[in-house]
Amino acid sequence: MAETQDNLLQKIKDQGDLVRKLKAAKESSGKGKSATNSLQDLEEINRHLSKYSYISGFVPSKADVELHYNLENNLDFRKYPHIKRWWYHMQSFSDSERTLFPVNHPSYAIFNVMQGKKRNFDLEIQEEVSKLLALKAQLGSEDAAPSKFVLKTPKGTRDYNPQQMTIRNNVLQKIITVFKRHGAECIDTPVFELKEVLTGKYGEDSKLIYDLKDQGGEILSLRYDLTVPLARYLAMNKINNLKRYHIAKVYRRDNPAMTRGRYREFYQCDFDIAGQYDLMVPDAECLLVVTEILNSLDIGKYVLKVNHRRLLDGMFETCGVPADKFRSTCSTVDKLDKSPWEEVRTEMINEKGVTPEAADRIGEYVRLNGSSELADKLLQDEKLSKNKSAVEGLEGIKLLLHYCELYGIKDKILFDLSLARGLDYYTGVIYEAVLTQPIKIGNEDQTVGSIAGGGRYDNLVGMFDSKNKQVPCVGVSIGVERIFSVLEAKLAAGDISVRTSDIDVYVASAQKNFLEERMKICAELWNAGIKTEQSYKKNPKMLNQLQHCEENGIPLAVILGESELKRGLVKIRNITTRQEDEIPRDNLVEELKSRIEVLDIKEMNGPIRK
């Protein structure tokens, strides 16, 4: 589909600005200014890196290595935030990792900077002017024959009908109830953050961050999760202790799988405990919170997998993985829930630079799972028992499993060495809740995968503090979109029913010309706090009114009739049983309240209200 005219006009404006900058740069260079590492060159590189992670796109290449070598070490990064981000990313790669980068070709202007050559401004201006003319030609063709506009939601997003929204609200309310039961307070943060806040926190997933166009001097990105904004919030406000929950939308430039609850725009429900506390006490409560939520939602059998980042680091070290490859290897291990070991092993060797011998030793460990007995066994392992990180992680897991036993949730916990969680900021215990049985979606049984995950991140807040002051944190995020998908599948299969309206009473009339009397009764019931509605037609048919009650699950109807009103009475009809009772008009509110109290209404996926 062709672009909208506003977008095209903005592109023409931006392209025109670029041409003008190039002409100004050409004029400056003609006055004797050096091209290599000049202001214009650096601005060109910074502008390029505002759109891409690396010189040739979103994957590091030999071009990045060459440019990193040619640029001066004493750059003033305050003027070039995107070069700064890229520079420190490049610094983190070892020499052996750089040798594995592919050979990709950068743009013409940046290629000149890399080569230390004087820029051919005439050629660059000619290229950019050609692009500008092409955009203007496209605008002219659109004016002549406007394209047909196709109504649809953007890729990876969706609308929600009343039934789906009822499911969502019901789920979120149950989750909030658990959060509040454990003393959590609610906060909110902006939907977008400074790009520098998010950069370098998500490892390989950083490429999924949505960057926003510069609208006023600040380079911004849509939030990827709710954890990094929390860390920024704690550091900015000098908060040392907080138990908070946060329910909001986040955004990821991922490949969506709509039927399995993977979107580009989706809700996260986070529960986090920040502060200096004794080992594994808040961590165990986070696991308890997950079990309480999943039990209340009753979406199926599940298991909570736990592991420890210190154990993983110790395991990698004893297996012969270099320290600078721990995080990238961890990201690969994290794929074991979706890919077989052979595929993971191949990626380790071919893409991460792990030796085949080290990969095979890792494979012996990551296939293990169990309980505290497994932790005891690994503490006796000849290699792991001599590694400080591994021992620290195993002792932590043992203590966590003990606390889970005290909370009565030991049967839900599985110590699993394949659990890695790819995010860079985790420092201690990590965990993930997974449904153990496939869910029927359409005509297929599909594995939903992880429905909750989290862990400890003790160093994240310090990244935002000028004095590197640390605030230890642990938390969990509930994957509500996947939970919504499971419940929507159950709704489609008829396993659950949903009331999209909370109306308890419908005010109906059996004859004509009762609109004003119906309005009076509705006002009286609304003032009494009773959920009520009526027809917006002056003289609705009785059959249509009762049918509306049945279709929308409204349990009671107040029926007005001329003879009853003359005697000071009204009728109350039970829609399900069709029983009608005459009661005094003056006692209507009290009678309705008492009947609503004893109604047998089954809510969606929840208890019966009595």
TrEMBL record:
<keyword id="KW-0648">Protein biosynthesis</keyword>
<dbReference type="InterPro" id="IPR033656">
    <property type="entry name" value="HisRS_anticodon"/>
</dbReference>
<protein>
    <recommendedName>
        <fullName>histidine--tRNA ligase</fullName>
        <ecNumber>6.1.1.21</ecNumber>
    </recommendedName>
</protein>
<dbReference type="InterPro" id="IPR045864">
    <property type="entry name" value="aa-tRNA-synth_II/BPL/LPL"/>
</dbReference>
<keyword id="KW-0694">RNA-binding</keyword>
<dbReference type="InterPro" id="IPR006195">
    <property type="entry name" value="aa-tRNA-synth_II"/>
</dbReference>
<keyword id="KW-0030">Aminoacyl-tRNA synthetase</keyword>
<dbReference type="GO" id="GO:0032543">
    <property type="term" value="P:mitochondrial translation"/>
</dbReference>
<dbReference type="InterPro" id="IPR004154">
    <property type="entry name" value="Anticodon-bd"/>
</dbReference>
<keyword id="KW-0547">Nucleotide-binding</keyword>
<dbReference type="Pfam" id="PF03129">
    <property type="entry name" value="HGTP_anticodon"/>
</dbReference>
<dbReference type="GO" id="GO:0003723">
    <property type="term" value="F:RNA binding"/>
</dbReference>
<feature type="domain" description="Aminoacyl-transfer RNA synthetases class-II family profile">
    <location>
        <begin position="156"/>
        <end position="487"/>
    </location>
</feature>
<dbReference type="InterPro" id="IPR015807">
    <property type="entry name" value="His-tRNA-ligase"/>
</dbReference>
<dbReference type="InterPro" id="IPR000738">
    <property type="entry name" value="WHEP-TRS_dom"/>
</dbReference>
<dbReference type="GO" id="GO:0004821">
    <property type="term" value="F:histidine-tRNA ligase activity"/>
</dbReference>
<dbReference type="GO" id="GO:0006427">
    <property type="term" value="P:histidyl-tRNA aminoacylation"/>
</dbReference>
<dbReference type="GO" id="GO:0005829">
    <property type="term" value="C:cytosol"/>
</dbReference>
<dbReference type="GO" id="GO:0005524">
    <property type="term" value="F:ATP binding"/>
</dbReference>
<dbReference type="InterPro" id="IPR041715">
    <property type="entry name" value="HisRS-like_core"/>
</dbReference>
<keyword id="KW-0067">ATP-binding</keyword>
<dbReference type="InterPro" id="IPR036621">
    <property type="entry name" value="Anticodon-bd_dom_sf"/>
</dbReference>
<comment type="similarity">
    <text>Belongs to the class-II aminoacyl-tRNA synthetase family.</text>
</comment>
<dbReference type="InterPro" id="IPR036282">
    <property type="entry name" value="Glutathione-S-Trfase_C_sf"/>
</dbReference>
<keyword id="KW-0436">Ligase</keyword>
<dbReference type="Pfam" id="PF13393">
    <property type="entry name" value="tRNA-synt_His"/>
</dbReference>
<dbReference type="GO" id="GO:0005739">
    <property type="term" value="C:mitochondrion"/>
</dbReference>
